[in-house]
Design brief:
3% strand; mainly alpha; ABC-type transporter Mla subunit MlaD; single chain; Sipho_Gp157; coiled coil
Length: 175
């Protein structure tokens, strides 16, 4: 049992090293990057040649890491929403302070560390959609997006689409 745990830990350590290398490539030498890549390739080779027990271990580690990634995405979304709520509270507080400054005729308050003051700036507010503005006052952006399903259907039907081709992708599936 200890051997299985050690193997799983080794796989986790390799994933951690690969993630660290991807996030901070400047901290790794070419030799270190090559060594991590070789170790990952060795683990993949072992999976391809060993029995079902090892496949289960690898699948377990992959699923566990995907669950961790999912959790982190959800946590990032939650933190993003919380940050937005804090920013909205700050905006409301600033509006309240502006109103108070104006009511009391205050332009500036100096504190020991900070100075709080009203500053007036000009900005443009549009009462129409940008496409209704005269052309000299707007930028037009054209964006091209391929309709891949249509391209694939055309090629499968025997047609050609210049610059496009169908490629076969291989992925690892865990059930």
């Amino acid at each position: 049992m200890l051997r299985i745990h050690d193997t799983e830990q080794a796989i986790h350590d390799l994933f951690d090293a690969a993630e660290e290398m991807a996030s901070r490539p400047e901290d790794f030498t070419d030799e270190e990057r090559a060594e991590i890549q070789r170790a990952l390739e060795e683990q993949a080779d072992l999976l391809a040649s060993e029995e079902a027990e090892h496949a289960d271990r690898y699948a377990f580690v992959i699923r566990k890491r995907l669950d961790e990634a999912s959790f982190l995405r959800e946590e990032a979304q939650r933190l993003h929403e919380r940050a937005r709520a804090v920013e909205n509270n700050v905006a409301r507080f600033k509006t309240t302070l502006i109103d108070a400054f104006r009511r009391h005729g205050i332009q500036k308050i100096k504190g020991a560390k900070y100075t709080v003051f009203l500053r007036t700036a000009e900005s443009v507010t549009l009462d129409v959609d940008p496409e209704n503005l005269p052309s000299e006052f707007r930028n037009e952006v054209i964006e091209y997006k391929p309709r891949k399903a249509d391209i694939k259907a055309a090629i499968k039907a025997g047609g050609t689409v210049p610059g496009a081709r169908i490629v076969e992708n291989v992925s690892l599936t865990i059930r």
